[in-house]
Amino acid sequence: MLDINKIMGLLPHRYPFLMLDKIVEMEPQKRIVGIKNVTINEPFFQGHFPGHPIMPGVLLIEGMAQAGGVLALLSDPEPEKKVLYFMSIDKAKFRKPVLPGDQVRFELDVIRQRGNIKSFKALALVDGVVVAESEMMAMIVDKDARNK
Question: Which residue ranges make up each domain of the chain?
């Protein structure tokens, strides 16, 4: 549905911090599904952990947040003029390690919307098994407002 070039047109993140490869499903204002292909070439595997590579849980949370950012921005009529700030992460749980060769599927559902604030329920899955989950809250603001 969205390839990496379209994702980079929306999000400010770049290598090595871009945690999405593509968006495969989206229902504006409601739901999004993003994919991250995890390879041994990821820079974080050098230190996490040598001889036993595991994707850091904080990067799974970041992948969820980036998918939520794409959903929130594409739900706005002028996404190119907006930026998303995450406000909270709650109920984060890490269930299983993510290893090189895994494909992580980030599934997010909007659970509340109030003005420019959105709350999401987020799951990260590998082969249909939940590896991480959380609830997140974010605010959409004008890019120009960042400098005020």
Answer: 4-147
HSE of 32, CA atoms in CB hemisphere, 13 A: 27
Show which residues are catalytic: 48
The Cα–Cα gap between 21 and 100 comes to 15
Find the mean pLDDT for residues 2-10: 96
Q: Is 108 left (phi over 0), alpha (psi -120 to 50) or beta?
A: beta
pLDDT tens-digit series, residues 66-99: 999 999 999 889 999 999 999 999 999 999 999 9
| CATH no. for 4-147 | 3.10.129.10
